[in-house]
Structure formats: structure tokens, C-alpha cells
Specification:
The structure is a homodimer of 397-residue chains. By secondary structure, the first copy, chain A, is of the alpha/beta class. Chain A folds into 2 domains: 31-279, Aspartate Aminotransferase, domain 2 (3-Layer(aba) Sandwich); 285-391, Aspartate Aminotransferase, domain 1. Chain A contains 15 helices and 15 strands. Chain A has helices at residues 4-9, 30-47, 51-54, 60-72, 85-98, 114-127, 141-144, 167-176, 196-199, 226-229, 268-279, 286-307, 333-342, 366-381, 388-391; strands at 11-12, 18-19, 28-29, 79-82, 105-109, 132-136, 149-155, 180-184, 203-206, 220-224, 312-313, 325-329, 345-346, 348-350, 354-358. A 7-stranded mixed beta sheet of chain A has the order 4-10-9-8-7-5-6, with helices on both faces. Chain A has a 4-stranded antiparallel beta sheet with strand order 11-12-15-14, with helices on one face. The first copy, chain A, has a two-stranded antiparallel ribbon with strand order 1-3. In chain A, helix 12 (286-307) packs parallel to helix 14 (366-381). Chain A is globular. The model of chain A has no long low-confidence stretch (mean pLDDT 96). Chains A and B meet through helix 2, helix 3, helix 5, helix 6 and helix 11 of A and helix 2, helix 3, helix 5, helix 6 and helix 11 of B.
Chain lengths: 397, 397
């Protein structure tokens, strides 16, 4: 049995806050702050340039990648880390397009995170030659996969609604039509049980500052199925993806396997914080995590629906079709979220009308979730959100 | 007058080490460690997601960009930060290629850093349609600029030899031929006096972990001349380069100006460390810095040439044609550098035969530089490098 009291104790959580926004930025693991301080003073400060070897910095992207691999069902050596999720989406897409010459369509859905769609559009524009992104409604994806599709690019869990795609089923359909899949696991890794190997995924990418608690701007990860790794082209062919970066050869030669997806100098401070954050996952069973997440989200939905008739559930009602977040709709969603934050309940707002609440069993208790639902009920009943101060939108929420 | 005793006191420097490798990784500014600790505990730990607004994280890439802008002669609002240098090279190149439709050549030199050449090759491959990278010897660049050239991509200071290109002259020649320039300032920013505006540069990029002391994997920067900023296309069109990222629009609309060159979620821990590292530059005069750098490198060359007849100067003899580093050649360069490191003098080796020494007046004294030359003289005179232990090459040096 996973000891969730122990995992909760591993985090610094501010007094008086119920944090339902770990799906945007996970909280600070105590070990991450200590590790970053040590890396700065002892490694950077004390070893200077020699830390690249002596402190093992050069291999950190792959070592951290392997730890993430264990959380998503990827074998050792098939995941590396670095850059941002948008860059890794681009790399996976560019590699995938090369594997299906003759086809010209990247298929995605309208619920995908906009940056994934923007990156795909930008790639198509550079590729020219008829390449285009096509999007359909999430529920229409299965029916839209045909033999024009080179790449099926989907985010497994919808960032607004929490709707969960069936990765294994859609991957099988894509393969049957001769397409390659790129899965974005931003809201999956650390949130639900993920098995890229079992699902047959070709490429997968994700970020680490949400449920993996790696910190603001923590690096992204990329998985290439071993069957593709040697054929995959690293379109962003930087020196640290070279087979022998320190030979400084004039021509690019890709490193073996997924290591070719490294680009430039890795962000060591962020990687070290992430590495420490992953310590919390040792001993966490994916099945326990999923069961606890469903328990929390079901309790929240029941209590909010009972108390807040004006909020409309935007997440799938069946937990089997939901990630680890719950969303409601309301035209004044932004102001409601601000009123909640003022009362110590941190969720977030996603345009145009989504109130979004993430459930991370590593540090969240059933009691907190119930109290959060009660506070939301008070805010709605008393129209506590109805003030100018709460309605004024800031750049980020 | 710049107070170099004060700037030196701002760094944590290990006892017994003479550090001549700040051109690879600058040492730890005391303020950077304190700032990173504060960002982790007070902002990430204490404010959680709300720190994106409350702690000003969202604007940090531009604020830090403006501070770097002041060191390279760029106006406010023309520089942003993020990603790695290789990614920023790609973005600048991709934007530049779009500004010269009809042409198909990116011109560079064989002394350029390999990653820049790799990224250019990768971009040409994606663009197809006859796009190609052509390289000539560094001294042949001026004569090779013709009306086939869309983009002239150069690194101002050669990473091996320290040779300095004349940015203003080559930019003027490029413009006369109708080409766009992309300047890599990796070994220029914080090393020499740089004036991208005066030189008329179109795009410039650089890293911040060398002379700017931002820490291992600190983010890169990119400058777009204001005359191009609104026309420049962000080929890696990520959500944080969108005009309104938090509207989550289906279609990409670039942010005004250089902000469109942002891609994904910024690495806040690295950016905060870099921001603190830039504090050291307040009050440093570029002219004083350049004069001090030349004093140090001239003293080093004179003393090494007097004591080490087997070492061949690989850097330009005229300091006006040199950056802030000095290189020598020797077939056993790797082992010699290892023997020096064992004696507390940290320089580095660059394949195939370059011993490389960087001079950063912010924390390096003339006395240290002379002592380093004396230790190198002892190592050479006694063949102290001639041992198996020093000859065994590690992955990074």
C-alpha cells in the first residue's frame, strides 16, 4: 500500500491553503530545495566546470528520463529530458512526419492544448509541400483516422475538461491506418496510470512541473519507442544530440536512440530539482494513485453538485474517462476562482468559462477536498465572487 | 572606474583554484545561490501557482532580456530569454530565411561552433527546396558574401582560437549584398564590448552561462533588430510567444516584437539565478572590462611563450582581433590540461589539439594569471602531463 501520509510529508505546503492546482504547478518537495542548494554551492560553486563530469551533470537528462520512464511504462534508455514541452512536441512531430513519406496530414483534436496545435502549424508551414494540420472534435477522432494521416497527435487528458482519450485504442486505430502517434502526457504523467509500451505509442512527450512537481519551468521529456529510435530524425539537431559532442565534428551524426533528442546544454538547476522531486515517487503504486485520485474527484463532484446548482460539470462523469482533474463551467468562472483563492482554495481558470481543479493524492487529503467543496458552495451561495476586485483579469491565473 | 575588487568579492571561488574556464561555465555569484533559494522557498513553496503573477515570473524572460540588452547595445524590448542557444540559433535563422525569399544559401564559417552548423543543416533539410548551408574559412567570409546569400550566420568570437570577427564590417558587407545577419555572441556577451545596434546586426543570439555567470544550463537570449521584429516569424511558434497565451485561441497570433520568440514555460529557477548573476554587472564599464581583459591575456601570452616553447599560439596575436580567451596548440593538449587541473589551474581542451584559457576580469587578477602561466611552464618543462592518468579522456573536459 502506498503511504500517502509519507508522500504528503515530503512537500512544503503553505498553512491555510488547499491546493487544487498541482495540475498547473506542483508544490515544492522539501528535497528539491535542498538538492538545488547543494548543486549550486557544492557542485557549481565548488567544482566549477569539472562538475559536468564529477557531479554527473552530463548524464542527468538521461538518468532523469529513465526515472520518468518508469512512471509511464517506458523501458530504460527510451526517455530523455530537456527543453520545454512545446519543443519536444515539435521534435516528436518532425521525427514522425519523416517516418511516413507520401502522407501530408497531422491529425489532432480541438481540445488539444493550443501550443501543440501552434507548433504543428509552424512545422507544417516550414515543411510546405502540402503539409497541414487537421483538427476534429475529441469524440470524432476515432472516425477521422484514415490513410491520409501521417501523424495522429493527441493530448491524452484534455487540459480544460479532464476528458481522457483511450491511448491504446486510438493508437491501434492509427497503426491500422498506417499512421504514427505522438501522445502528449502533460496531464497524464503522475496523474493516472500510463503505459506507453502497452499502448503501443510511437512517441510521447510531457512536462514535469505539473503532477511530477519538478518546479516552475522544469524540463520536458520525450519518449521514442525503441522500434523507431534509430530511424527517428532529430530535426532540432543540436550538439548534445550528436553521437560525440565533444569531438566537435563538422557534420551532424545523431547519438544512438532517444539521446539524439537532446539539443543544447541541459538546465542543471531545474533538472536537479526535478530529480529530487521524483524521489517522492519511489514506492508509489500507479494503481493506488489512480484509486486515490478517483476517490478525491468523485467526492468533490458529489459535494459541489449538491451545493452549487449554478455550476455545470464540464468533466466526464465516468471516472474511467477522466484524468485527475475536475472542471465546471460558469460564465463568471474567472471571478469565482479569484474568490476561492482569496479564501485559500487554489484552483484555476481556463478561458472562456472553465473552473479547473486538480487532485494530487501525493499531498491532498479527502478532508481538504471536502472543505474546498464547502468553501466553493459558500462562495456560490453568497455570490462572494461578485465584486470588481475578483473580476479584473490578470495575465495569468 | 570599474571596481574589480568588488566584482571579485561577489563570487564564490574555491580555495586554491585559478579559474580560466569562465568562458565555458562562469563561477557562482553569491547572490545567485541566495536568490534561487528564495525563489524556491518563498515563491514556489509559498505562493505556488500564484507566483506567476505575484512574483513576476511571467515577465522574467523579458526583464532579464532587457538587462542583457544593456550589455550588448540593444534597446529595451528587443531581447528575450529562454531555451538553449541552439534553439535560439534555429529561431533566428528560420526568421531570417523568411525575410529573403528567392535566396537559398546560409553562409557561415568552418570556425563556427558545430551546434550552430548542425542546427542550420537541420533547418535546411526541413525547408528543402534547395536550401543549403555553405561554409568557408573564417578569413574567407568577407569575400564569399554574394547575392545568393540569404543569411550570414557567424559566431563573433571563435570558440577554439578566440579570433574575433568584425561584426560591423561583415554586417555592412552582408547588407550591401542584400543578406540578413545572425550573430552568435556566446563568447562575446560579457567578454568584449558588444554593440549590436551600432553594428547594424539583424538578429543576435547568445548563451548566459559563460561570461554572464548564469549557471549550468542557464537560458539563452535572442535579439531581433526593432526594424525586423514585427516581420520576424517565430518558426517555433509556442504558446508563450502568442499575443494572448491565456486566451487559449485555436490559431497562433504572434506577440508584438521579440516576445514572439518565447516558446514554452520559462525555466524560472535558472532565470532567477541568471537575474541575480547580472547584478554583478551593474557599474561595470565595457571599456574597463575590455582593457582589463586585454591586460590579462597579453600578460598570459607573454609569460607562456617565454616559458613554453613547445606550445604554439592559436589565438590572434593582435588583441584587437581576439576575444577574451587565449588558445595554444599541442598534440598532447588534453593531457596537459588535465595536469593543470590537478595543480589547481582550470582551463579546458577542445579537440583536436587546443588548450583554451578564458580571462574574466570580474573575478580574475593579474597575479593569478601570472601564476597560472608559471604552473603551465612547470608542467611543460617537467613533462608532468606525460602519464596515463592524464591521457585518459573523459566525456567532457
Amino acid at each position: 500500500m502506498t503511504d500517502f501520509a509519507a508522500t504528503r510529508a515530503a512537500f512544503e505546503l503553505p498553512e491555510g491553503v488547499i491546493y487544487l492546482d498541482g495540475n498547473s504547478l506542483g508544490p515544492l518537495p522539501r528535497g528539491a530545495a535542498d538538492r538545488a542548494a547543494r548543486v549550486m554551492r557544492e557542485e557549481w560553486g565548488g567544482m566549477l566546470i569539472t562538475a559536468w563530469n564529477r557531479a554527473g551533470w552530463m548524464d542527468l537528462p538521461g538518468r532523469v528520463g529513465d526515472r520518468i520512464g518508469r512512471l509511464i511504462g517506458a523501458p530504460a534508455g527510451s526517455v530523455t529530458t530537456g527543453d520545454t514541452l512545446s519543443i519536444k512536441v515539435w521534435q516528436a512531430l518532425a521525427a514522425a512526419t519523416r517516418l511516413r513519406p507520401g502522407r501530408r496530414v497531422i491529425l489532432s483534436d480541438t481540445g488539444n492544448f493550443p501550443s501543440d496545435l501552434y507548433m504543428a502549424t509552424g512545422l507544417c508551414r516550414l515543411l510546405g509541400d502540402g503539409w497541414r494540420l487537421e483538427t476534429v472534435a475529441p469524440e470524432a477522432v476515432a472516425g477521422a483516422i484514415d490513410d491520409r494521416v501521417a501523424v495522429l497527435m493527441l493530448t491524452e487528458v484534455d487540459y480544460r475538461t479532464g476528458r481522457l482519450h483511450d491511448m491504446a485504442d486510438l493508437t491501434a486505430r492509427a497503426h491500422a491506418a498506417g499512421a504514427i502517434t505522438v501522445w502528449d502526457l502533460a496531464h497524464s504523467a503522475g496523474a493516472i496510470a500510463v503505459d506507453v509500451t502497452g499502448a503501443g505509442a510511437d512517441f510521447a512527450v510531457g512536462c514535469t512541473y505539473k503532477y511530477l512537481n519538478g518546479g516552475p519551468g522544469a524540463p520536458a521529456f520525450i519518449y521514442a519507442a525503441p522500434r523507431h529510435a534509430e530511424a527517428a530524425e532529430a530535426a532540432l539537431s543540436g550538439w548534445l544530440g550528436h553521437a560525440a559532442p565533444f569531438e566537435f565534428e563538422a557534420a551532424y551524426r545523431p547519438a544512438p536512440g532517444v539521446a539524439r533528442m537532446r539539443v543544447g546544454t541541459p538546465p542543471i538547476l531545474q533538472l536537479a530539482a526535478l530529480d529530487a522531486a521524483l524521489d517522492v515517487w519511489e514506492g508509489v503504486s500507479p494503481a493506488d494513485l489512480r484509486a486515490a485520485s478517483i476517490r478525491l474527484s468523485e467526492a468533490f463532484i458529489a459535494r459541489v453538485e449538491a451545493g452549487c446548482p449554478d455550476l455545470t460539470l464540464a468533466a466526464p462523469r465516468d471516472p474511467a474517462h477522466r484524468g485527475s482533474q475536475v472542471s465546471f463551467r460558469h460564465p463568471e468562472g474567472y471571478a469565482i476562482v479569484q474568490a476561492l483563492i482569496a479564501r485559500g482554495v487554489i484552483g484555476d481558470f481556463r478561458a472562456p468559462d472553465i473552473l479547473r481543479f486538480g487532485f494530487a493524492p501525493l499531498y491532498l487529503t479527502l478532508e481538504e477536498v471536502e472543505r474546498a467543496a464547502d468553501i466553493l458552495t459558500e462562495v456560490m451561495a453568497g455570490r462572494a465572487w461578485d465584486s470588481e476586485a475578483f473580476r479584473r483579469r490578470a495575465a495569468v491565473t
